[in-house]
Amino acid sequence: MLPFVAASVTEHSKRDFNTQPVIVSSRWDPTPEQLMTLEDLYRPGTLTPTAEQIQHITAQLRRYGKIEGKNVFYWFQNHKARERQKRRRRLESSPDEQQGDVKSLERKESGTAVDVSPPTLQTFSLELRCPLCNTILYDAAVCKLLT
């Protein structure tokens, strides 16, 4: 009876080796909740978050799935670049009337722009709000919901 047991164990082992391997991806695959939260932070003016803000955002987004600080950093960097590309394409696809705007945009991005327009008062929202409770977070503050 021993040879029979050995044969069945050997056949079982062969079947294990013939199964498809589990593929583990090293890329971050954001959940819909993570994307929605990042978009909500980007829209009001958080274009380049500080290291402390990245830590806070990462802690919030961990509730919805696996994420690291570098994912948050690169998401903001890539999102800003894509917005800039969209804006440039929109200006380039418009008629000649916008041609000057394209050249102005190129000069601004290359650092050679000289703005001769009169100064205007613009307000920018530089405060970071917790998307879960909408409280304003100062410096490296952490939302009370996350503690």
UniProtKB/TrEMBL annotation:
Segments of this protein annotated with the region Disordered: 81-116
Residue ranges constituting the Homeobox domain according to the UniProt record: 31-86
CDD domains: homeodomain (cd00086)
Basic residues bias spans: 81-90
UniProt cross-references to Pfam families, sorted A to Z: Homeodomain (PF00046)
Location in the cell: Nucleus
Keywords associated with the record: Developmental protein, DNA-binding, Homeobox, Nucleus, Transcription, Transcription regulation
Location of the DNA-binding region in this protein: 33-87
Gene Ontology CC annotation, any one: nucleus
GO biological process, one term: plant organ development
Record's keyword annotation contains Transmembrane: no
Record flagged with keyword Transcription regulation: yes
Molecular function in Gene Ontology: DNA binding; DNA-binding transcription factor activity
Family of the protein in this entry: Belongs to the WUS homeobox family.
Protein name: Homeobox domain-containing protein
Organism: Tetracentron sinense (Spur-leaf)
